[in-house]
């Protein structure tokens, strides 16, 4: 079982490296640089604005909320697959060591993520929540111990027990960790640290008894791992095609009245097809909505006009770039090759649709830029620049990009 686990971990890491090459492509890395730079600048300005204020009543509740949410970022990775409930069933006694290996691996990943996020949160704890340096250190230890405890409880939940009840899940995953972290935020943090260590010792003793007596729940464990991998594949599918993810088209009848009607003219035919492919395909419409929403959230937290304009321009480009494959959506349909098609009319219909989508996003991006309070001329200039960029991408850049794709 140890060899099986090592092979599956290596296969999993190889899969991650394969897809991360597509996630961190040149365009996304550039966008991340702008995003992290803008976040760092805004975060720094935000903390400076709070440094002289002693009465920040919302800082401690906010810190507590973030810490509790941080704990639930990770999930135990078992690498189990559907056939295992048949082929590995004779090895059920050895599955305990397999789950221990998975727990140790998942704990290492979870603790690493928690520490990275905690480093980002530390300035807020010091300058806004007004915690002392010693309390921040003890609170970090508390967070790590609670994360380890949660991973152990996830491993225990893979065995058939009477504890897999919603009320108990809420109690041990949210309520008790929340109360311990609240003690760390509002009281001397070493108190919370001591309680967290006692909770971990209690969980460890229960884990040893449970692993020795309980039966492994193959179906539940495989379903949990399948759900975890599905979330991971959906994330990768935002950047490249993933064989394990195939979005199902949805009718979305309520949007029909907003879509162009059928026309016998070549341009009208493709306008009809492209708009319906965009709306009914989860691949393109979901990607468009996610990127637009992400940019809106970022822009609302950036007070600098030029940085906001630059980030909005980058996202307009990313949206146009990610929607280019929509042009070849119907190329595998045989009628596209037997019916006489005017390729110029096809491109014209696509470019008009692409410009409409980018124009809508530009309007949304203009709202937070205008709310930040620049002069009317500067705000309108941002809108004009974003619309001009949308037109260039839809009419000129898309033509070059589509020629390379073809």
For the sheet with most strands, the description reads: none
Strand content: under 5%
Number of strands: 0
Q: How many H/I helices?
A: 15
Are there runs of 5+ residues with pLDDT below 50, and where? none
C-alpha Rg (nearest Å):
26 Å
Number of domains: 2
Which percent bin holds the helix content? over 70%
- The mean pLDDT is 82
Order of helices and strands: HHHHHHHHHHHHHHH
Give the end-to-end Cα distance, rounded to a whole number of Å: 48 Å
What would the principal axes of the Cα set say about the shape?
Answer: flat
Structural class: mainly alpha
What does this structure look like?
This is Protein ecsB. Keywords: Membrane, Transmembrane, Transmembrane helix. The chain is mainly alpha-helical and 406 residues long. The protein has 15 helices and no strands. Helix 3 crosses helix 7, helix 6 runs parallel beside helix 8 and helix 14 runs antiparallel to helix 15.
């Amino acid at each position: 079982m140890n060899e099986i686990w090592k092979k599956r971990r290596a296969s999993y890491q190889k899969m991650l490296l394969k897809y991360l090459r597509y996630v961190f492509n040149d365009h996304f890395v550039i966008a991340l640089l702008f995003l992290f730079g803008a976040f760092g600048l805004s975060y720094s300005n935000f903390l400076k604005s709070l440094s002289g204020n002693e009465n920040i009543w919302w800082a401690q509740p906010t810190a507590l909320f973030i810490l509790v949410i941080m704990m639930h970022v990770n999930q135990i990775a078992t690498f189990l697959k559907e056939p295992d409930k048949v082929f590995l069933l004779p090895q059920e006694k050895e599955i305990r060591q397999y789950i221990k290996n998975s727990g140790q691996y998942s704990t290492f990943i979870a603790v690493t993520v928690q520490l990275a996020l905690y480093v980002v949160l530390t300035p807020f704890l010091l300058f806004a929540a007004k915690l002392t340096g010693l309390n921040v250190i003890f609170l970090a230890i508390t967070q790590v111990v609670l994360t380890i405890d949660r991973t152990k409880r996830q491993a225990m939940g893979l065995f058939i027990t009477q504890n897999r009840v919603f009320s108990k899940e809420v109690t041990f995953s949210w309520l008790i960790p929340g109360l311990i972290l609240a003690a760390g935020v509002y009281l001397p943090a070493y108190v919370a640290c001591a309680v967290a260590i006692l909770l971990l010792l209690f969980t460890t003793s229960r884990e040893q008894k449970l692993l020795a007596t309980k039966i492994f729940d193959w179906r539940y464990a495989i379903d949990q791992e399948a759900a975890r991998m599905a979330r991971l594949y959906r994330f990768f599918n935002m950047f490249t095609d993933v064989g394990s993810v195939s979005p199902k088209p949805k009718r979305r009848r309520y949007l029909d009245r907003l879509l162009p009607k059928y026309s016998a003219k070549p341009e009208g035919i493709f306008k009809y097809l492209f708009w319906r492919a965009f709306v009914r395909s989860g691949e393109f419409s979901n990607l468009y909505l996610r990127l637009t929403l992400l940019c809106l959230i970022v822009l609302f937290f950036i007070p600098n006009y030029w940085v906001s304009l630059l980030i909005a321009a980058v996202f307009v480009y990313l949206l146009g770039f990610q929607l280019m494959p929509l042009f070849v959506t119907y190329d595998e349909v045989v009628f596209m090759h037997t019916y006489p098609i005017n390729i110029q009319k096809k491109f014209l219909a696509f470019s008009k649709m692409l410009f409409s989508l980018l124009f809508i996003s530009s309007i949304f991006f203009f709202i937070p830029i205008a709310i930040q309070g620049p002069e009317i001329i500067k705000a309108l200039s941002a809108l004009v620049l974003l619309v001009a960029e949308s037109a260039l991408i839809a009419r000129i850049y898309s033509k070059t990009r589509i020629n390379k794709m073809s």
